[in-house]
Design goal:
With 309 residues, this protein is α/β, with parallel strands linked by helices. 17% of the residues lie in helices and 23% in strands. The longest helix is centred in the middle third of the chain and has 9 residues.
Length: 309
């Protein structure tokens, strides 16, 4: 199974168009140790020919252009794509806006939770993916389903599970407890190669590593995990936004309640941070925070990173 990080940044990308934080300034000016990143998406294939996208970022068109494996194959006709399916982990703009790049009456299958599929249905711009062309299938929670698209069996299955998180920002209900967040608003995915039984976890949004989630990922061979923030208050301290990590629905990496500490005893063979916000100091290859994450056995995901499982 091939796992390719198409985009390793959180929403906004790196640099973010309107951001003057020290990281964004550094990458914009080409400072050594800083690498630009596009928004959050991963591509997976069992056979190298048919691909499943995990989330569809607003940068998808660029990401497809950066990966020859995702170019249309001449053998499939004048209009074609090796992208046969897309699975969504939530309804955030950085994970669904790229679906609009996949118009042009191209058949593929779209998978998501009932909550996220309902959000897409309510946003009629997504009707550009006509139901008779793009099948929409609900991901059940806790039961693997085989992934098919455009008449192709991808040789992959997905087991979705509810991850601690938050409803998409544009769907928040200011008057409701937890802003109206319900089960299915944030998913983690276990992606399974059916032939070999090998699997990995993709959890790009996660508010906290609770006990059920810890038990689920214990001993995994690979986890791609929410690397949005280094600290709970970094957005506030840097003057970017008056929100804590908890309010944003993202666990931070550092500290006793952070993901680095939470993973310490889980025996995960390979741990990679993805969905990294432009405010995060680990984006500076020379920072003490990067050194600390790497010393704890973490890799900092980057665009084009490829893992063979
Ligand atoms: Zn920035």
């Amino acid at each position: 199974m091939r796992v390719r990080v198409l985009g390793s940044s959180a929403g906004g990308g790196f640099p973010q168009w309107n951001c003057n934080c020290s990281n964004c300034r550094a990458v914009r000016s080409g400072l050594p140790g800083f690498t630009a990143r596009t928004q959050s998406s991963v591509a997976v294939s069992a056979d190298g020919a048919s691909w499943l996208l995990l989330n569809a970022s607003p940068d998808l068109r660029h990401q497809i252009g950066q990966m020859p494996d995702l170019a249309p194959s001449a053998a499939e006709g004048v209009r074609a794509t090796p992208i046969k399916a897309v699975a969504l982990t939530n309804g955030d703009v950085d994970h669904v806006a790229g679906l609009l790049n996949l118009r042009e009456a191209q058949p593929f299958s779209l998978y998501g939770s009932r909550r996220v599929l309902d959000a897409l249905k309510a946003n009629t711009i997504f009707d550009i993916l006509a139901p008779q062309v793009v099948a929409r299938t609900e991901l059940p929670l806790g039961a693997p389903i085989e992934i098919h698209g455009a008449g192709i069996d991808l040789g992959l299955a997905i087991e979705a599970f509810a991850a601690p998180g938050k409803i998409a920002l544009y769907l928040e209900d200011a008057d409701a407890a937890d802003f109206g967040t319900r089960t299915g608003d944030t998913l983690g995915l276990r992606v399974i190669e059916i032939a070999s039984g090998k699997s990995f976890f993709y959890i790009p949004g996660c508010a906290r590593l609770d006990e059920p989630l810890a038990q689920r990922i214990k001993g995994a061979s690979l986890v791609l995990f929410d690397g949005t923030l280094w600290s709970e208050t970094e957005m506030i301290e840097k003057g970017l936004m008056a929100k804590t990590g908890s309010r944003m629905g993202h666990i931070n990496m550092s500290g006793p309640d952070g993901s680095i500490a939470a993973f310490a005893d889980l025996g995960v063979a390979r741990k990679i941070f993805v969905h990294i916000n432009n405010s995060n100091p680990v984006l500076d290859a020379g920072s003490r925070e990067r050194a600390a994450a790497e010393a704890a056995g973490w890799e900092i995901g980057f665009d084009g990173m490829e893992i063979a499982l």
